[in-house]
Amino acid sequence: MSLLVNRGTRPLPASARPGPEVLAFHRRLPGYAPTPVHDVPALAEAAGVARVLVKDESSRMGLPAFKILGASWATYRVLCDRLARLGLEGDPLWDTLPDLADMVARQLGPLRLVAATDGNHGRAVARMARLLGLSATILVPDGTAPARIAGIAAEGAEVTVVQGTYDDAVAESAALAGERDLVISDTSWPGYEDPPRRVIEGYATIFAELDEQLPALDAPPPDLVVVPLGVGALGAAAASCLRAGLEPGEGPVLVGVEPDSAACVAAAVEAGHVVEVPGPHRSIMAGLNCGMASMLALPTVAAGFEAFVTIGDDRCRDAVRSLADAGLDVGETGAAALGGLLALRVEHGSEFPVPSGAVVLLLATEGVTDPVNFERIVGRPPR
Ligand SMILES: Cc1ncc(COP(=O)(O)O)c(C=O)c1O
What we know:
Elements: E1 3-5, H1 21-27, E2 37-39, H2 41-47, E3 51-56, H3 68-85, H4 97-108, E4 112-116, H5 120-132, E5 135-141, H6 146-153, E6 158-162, H7 166-174, E7 181-183, H8 194-202, H9 204-216, E8 224-228, H10 233-242, E9 253-259, H11 264-271, H12 298-304, E10 305-311, H13 313-325, H14 332-347, E11 359-364, H15 371-378
Helix pairs in contact: 3-5, 3-8, 5-6, 8-10, 10-12, 13-14
């Protein structure tokens, strides 16, 4: 369990915040609705702060995580680029998703979406492929929970288990890129930046929703926002949406949470460049089992996050139980934000004090994606 206080924060330009076109796109997708925000006094009491608000991503367009927001926008933009090459661009290209699927089939022919994943991103890419009538190949590291593999396969995708880490799966997915094979990755590497940039933009919808939801809850703007970090794409979205145009000392303080064994974003911020945290990464916070931060996300995260805390699986299990006791069935990765808040309060109070009057926003980024482990932790099946 460690804490890195980031001395290198700097203001982000107001232009860093994505425009309204992302939310407008998501609103046109089947099943779109804002995810709820819960005000949870029991968690505020447990954490010793004034208020804990939980943005609950356990059901997002019928999937158990927020990741479809990035996967859908990135897939759409990649397809738009292909259509633009044929001179087909400008609004409205489509009214409904079946219209778009039709146009893609007629103009572009058969295509395959390819992605590496710890579970949620790949399932979201597979869902987009199904909605658009495309095929999909999703690569997962060995050790991925059977329920998560089944979730991806249920979308009709081919699932390939890679003998190695998530980062090995990313490398294998990159090698599959081709004229008919579109890699939709949430992480970036030299020469591959456009889809992961779109993924980050896609996550802006979470924060656009919060802009309306927090005032409606009569909640003041949060003092602290706790964000789980895998490769840092969600963190980059949080920083660009919540800190753009603000001076130091204004607006919310952002803190990132990673597993003890895979703190690749903190390591990169400390080093000033992407570094590899060697695997195997076996935390129960599967979505955070990443050994290398996204080089595209890193500068924004390094500018906008004031601290990075790591937690172990026991702290995560406590957080899963506390959320479940409060009526929120959240998966291990989703519970990491609460685990991070508890670690700050219990272990790092002197280096990074969180005032007892603080209003804290937690991004609970997934629902239960491994019911067997959930039951092991909580003692009952998910509701
Ligand atoms: C549920 C969940 N939360 C958080 C994250 C972290 O997001 P990122 O990899 O963009 O940092 C992931 C990544 O897979 C995830 O699945």
